């Protein structure tokens, strides 16, 4: 079985969080390495993090960068994306839509804390809830796809985590989004997720 080294900063709820969660839940042998930054920047494939290095059983190495490419690769490798192309595309569509809310959080929390960026974040998340709550309500398992954890489940978990960080987790709560909240609560009770 392959082993993995994830190069990233030692922070929670960053661009490598979904990858860390999937590696943990997938039972991967992996470690987080924090490069000496910014001196290591020039040695990175695109001069930024995260970077994933897979060491295969034959000793060969596969290096991948760009957070979304890494997430998709790990999701495929550990069964968090369906093998059916249409179902996989649907799952990735959900992730891309969730990413809009995460980017609105980044804009508000790291770029410009203004009333305008806060309102945009709130409206983006409310729109997401209006579209995603029915998706989860329609699946008796409570997951986005099938009966088990999948890539979009991890993405919505991350979104709730970052909203919680800034005191806005009421946007996805038991009263505002009961099906989304139930999934997030169930995931938070998973020891592999809690330890990531």
Descriptors:
single chain, 196 residues, alpha+beta, Glutaredoxin, Glutathione S-transferase Yfyf (Class Pi), Chain A, domain 2, 2 domains, four-stranded mixed sheet, 7 helices, 52% helix, globular
Structure description:
By secondary structure, this protein is an alpha+beta fold. The protein has two domains: 3-77, 3-Layer(aba) Sandwich (Glutaredoxin), CATH 3.40.30; 85-194, Glutathione S-transferase Yfyf (Class Pi), Chain A, domain 2 (Up-down Bundle). It has seven helices and four strands. A four-stranded mixed β-sheet has the order 2-1-3-4, with helices on one face. Strand 3 (51-55) and strand 4 form a beta hairpin. Helix 1 crosses helix 5, helix 3 runs antiparallel to helix 4 and helix 5 (151-165) crosses helix 6.
Query: In the CATH scheme, what's the topology name of the largest domain?
Result: Glutathione S-transferase Yfyf (Class Pi), Chain A, domain 2
CATH architecture of the largest domain: Up-down Bundle
Number of discrete domains: 2
Strand order of the largest sheet: 2-1-3-4
Q: State the share of residues found in helices, binned by percent.
A: 40-55%
Q: List low-pLDDT spans.
A: none
Tally the beta strands: 4
- What is the tally of helical segments? 7
Portion of residues in beta strands equals 5-15%
Strand pairing plus helix content: what structural class? alpha+beta
Output the helix-strand order: EHEEEHHHHHH
The biggest beta sheet, please? 4 strands, mixed
Average of per-residue pLDDT values: 97
Radius of gyration: 17 Å
Amino- and carboxy-terminal Cα gap:
20 Å
Pfam family, one: GST_C_3
Domain GST C-terminal: 84-196
Keywords: Transferase
Domain GST N-terminal: 1-82
